[in-house]
Design a protein that fits this description.
single chain, Pseudouridine synthase, 252 residues
């Protein structure tokens, strides 16, 4: 089971104007109610609505275990405009992830994915239509630590920047698994043995994927808006454990 999200504190607002608001979504918080997550009782949509005292509309989605920038519109009309920007690829998204192994300096991952039905996979997903999916990978840091794994006396990990130009469900998770560098803490696309290792050794039970930045043109002002999210505490803690506190990158 995922770590329980602490919602005793208000959601962290990264950006707000009369049309849009962005939060730093915690790990394990669902964007909205879902039939496949019946264990959840709190959702970003309801929490932000109550915090602001008005209706909010999620302009895009983040996986439950992914933290970082989550953008909402404050009206149905603005929501339609922003959703169209996302669909047209006009919103630039940047993620950071900690993955197994040493990744290449840069890599273009051009690997089509079957359309996911959103219900956890199964036959419908396996038989779904293939959709183009493209992600650019850039390695920021690599580390080797004295953590035995299998036949190896040490373990290697990389901190990567991931820039998707398409928005398929679980795209980054599936792409990293495809190139054999799964995101730590990912289920079901990641490495269960690594996930178990992190849970036992570091008491970590989340997924190390962070939506770091969104950049888009504001539909009203035509200003280029860039929204950045600081790391959630668990992501930052593991960065320090693996790469050392002094080498942890900051998000200004």
């Amino acid at each position: 089971m995922d770590q329980v999200t602490n919602t005793t504190q208000p959601l962290s607002i990264l950006y707000q104007d009369t049309e849009l608001v962005a939060i730093n979504k915690p790990h394990s918080l669902l964007v909205h109610r879902s039939m496949i997550a019946s264990d959840a009782s709190e959702f970003a949509v309801q929490l932000l609505r109550d915090q602001l005292g008005q209706r909010v509309y999620p302009a895009h989605r983040l996986d439950r275990k992914t933290a970082g920038v989550l953008l909402f519109a404050l009206s149905e009309s603005m929501n339609s405009i922003m959703q169209q920007q996302f669909m047209d690829g006009l919103v630039h998204k940047t993620y950071l992830a900690i993955v197994r192994g040493y990744t290449p300096d840069e890599q273009a991952i051009d690997y089509p994915l079957r359309k996911d039905d959103g219900n956890g996979g199964g036959a419908a997903s396996r038989l779904g239509v293939l959709q183009d999916a493209f992600t650019h990978l850039k390695t920021l840091q690599r580390t080797e630590i004295a953590l035995p794994f299998g036949k190896h006396p040490t373990s290697r990990y990389s901190l990567v920047e991931l820039t998707p130009t398409t928005g398929r469900m679980h795209q980054l998770r599936k792409h990293m698994a495809h190139i054999l560098h799964p995101i730590i803490g990912d289920r079901p696309h990641g490495c269960n043995k690594q996930n178990k290792l992190f849970k036992e050794r570091f008491e970590m039970n989340t997924m190390l994927l962070h939506a770091q930045q969104l950049t888009f043109t504001h539909p009203i002002t035509q200003e280029v808006i860039t929204i950045k999210a600081p790391f959630q505490s668990e992501f930052e803690r593991i960065l320090g454990v693996l790469f050392g506190e002094a080498s942890v990158p900051t998000v200004s």
